Write the structure tokens for this entry.
Amino acid sequence: MEGSRFFVYRWPLVVLIGIFVVGMYVRAVDVQEPWVAPAWTDTLKNPYPLSWGTRTVSNTVLEDGGKLYQAQCAVCHGKSGHGDGLPGMEMAVKPANFHREEVRRQPDGALYWKLTEGRGTMPSYKQRLSDDERWRLVAYLRHLSESEEIAGKASGAGPGLAPGAFDFKPGLASTYFRLPEQVTNAYASELQHVMLDTVVSGLTLPWSMAFSPEGELFVTERSGTILRVRGRDQAPKPLAGPLPAELRDIKLHPRFVENRLVYITYYIEPTADSGGYTALMRAKLTDSNSLADTELLYKAGPFKQGAFFYGSKIAFDFDGHLFFTVGISGRRENAQDLSRPEGKTMRLNEDGSLPPDNPFSGKAGVLPEIYTYGHRMHEGLNFDRETSLLYATEFGELGGDELNVLKPGANYGWPEVTFSREYSGEIITGDTLRADVEPPVHHWTFAPADLEIIRGGHYPNWQGNIIIGGLAAKSLLRVELTGSVYQRDEWLLPNIGRVRDVKLAPDGFIYVMIEDNGLIIRLIPIQQQ
């Protein structure tokens, strides 16, 4: 489940949909033919004309266009528009550099048409942005190209390392995606140098990914598509079968190779006759690339809100139990109501039945599936197989984003005890700690998504660290712990995009799924020559 505002300014939800671009023009030698707008686009009249070197539109128009650009386009085009954002460095067709003469000389109508129609990896924004929003963005691009204040040489997004000074560490290999022949797009953290390697692109609102032990990757898209990915040289193939819309998490059974079972969460939209539900289903992957024998194991609700507000995550422990998160929207106090499902973590057996040793089992007026309560939106869930601790990230309102260790029967406070504030800045509660409420490991302000615990793999300097995806922060957060006690953290990959999922795959590499630009990026350890 996630909040209704991801940024301090407010734009329609459609603006959050993946843009690696506003790539009105891309130099695509040997990849694509030059993108030429139809002659009739010269007749399109820009309501916000901006002559080169002359500001003829209001500051409000430029500020609005700038917010759109920085939130959505700077990921790949760079903060200054030089086409040097981190993901773009790995693309075969490079993002547009808006300072190039061939972009500057294009008429406003041509830029507007390209933004409207899209091509290749650049989607059409005909339905996603209003006419006025597209024109404001064109005005800002004109301003961006001629403004020395904005168009400095450094975008602030790049790693600042010379790729030629690095090699891959010896012995690296992967059964999922072959490694590149040489190091490009090098990035330095405090303790680890890595290369950002784009292995999948072109996804549309991806939510989760799962790696099979057999060298395949499964990806859910919100629309109701599950993609099966086999290497970087083959196009992802959608699974057939009765798949619902509004997909969320996907997890493979711990013994997937034997039983082929796949677990999926999704949201059932409310109708005039019934409410909405967060649902958990199980299916079997067949040899014909389809899901069969689907079973609805559990659904939480009814809720009045639409699918945008709800997310859900799955985790398995060692003992045949499945954990399933249900966030909350609407009446906050329901998170404290043990007769209601929202704001809770559920504990089920793998077949959807109820474990008799659940913490509230047999208590009158209490849902027996509840494991923890008092959550707002716990968008990340991961069972640490070394310590047997169950970690969750929780999405606060304004601030109060938490990393928690989930303990049976524990109350995590929302909304009675929280570090969050209202989006207006008003205080929700005066209590940030209380004796009967489990305190967070730590809290921040960054809108967290899923998390991964680094055990083994190729990152010796990150062992035991937790890596958390940042949605509003558009970055990763690396958290150092002693046991489960917070020590310090480090922000990684600034402006990479809305990180929805992070996984340490069986090949030992970290994979990062970026929601708004539709990419999956692998972090490959590198060393100086």
User: Anything to note?
Assistant: DSSP finds five helices and 26 strands in the chain.
